[in-house]
Please model this.
Amino acid sequence: GMTSIDVLTVLGHDLKSPLNAVESYLEIMQNRVLGDSVEPYLPILEKSVSRLHQMRELITDVVDWSRIRTPSPSRALTTLDVSKTARAILGGFREPARARNITIAADIKDGLIMEAGTGEIELVLRHLIDNAVKYNRVDGSVTVTITKAGAGITVEVADTGIGMTGEEQSRLFQEFVRIKNENTRDIWGTGLGLAIVRQIVGLYGGTVSVRSEPDRGTTFSITLPLRWRASQPASEDIVL
Model:
């Protein structure tokens, strides 16, 4: 994994481009390059807002990543209803999915309760579902399956999206890895989401694996023990 210094270096580099863009957009407006009417500036405003959203997402992911890398010794654990939480998070993705006519299906068993650090399992689910929607195709589908398996929970997030080669899958969980090819050119991501997923699942001594085929789709599978010792060493158990 990367050190905090590495991450700050990349962060600084990655923030420059949206900052420069927004700055030049604002200067166009400030100097009234396109005249005095508001109308011609609206597309520029829209671009600025979208670049600012990217910056916020990047900063949020870096903050999450560093918080999870060095969990506080007094980390508060709460009882989490994974079933309820997953349904609520899925609800939040229905709008962006509908915009590209992506169907969301859920098979979530009720009453899956576990001890968890505040906001951690939510982050895992959010990043996986976000990826499944973002890297999907128009008219595609996302299926979220959460079941009890032995003494743990299995979460599967499957999409019918652009998929990945074996080589791309092998780099997937590293910090700031963005899979760059024809299909992903217009999709923006921080490259930290799956590193955060790996880190959190490791905290719980769980496993994370991925099955994917180019142009066919990707399925992420995660197992989380229902009962685990907060003091256990982080597992680096990534099955590819």
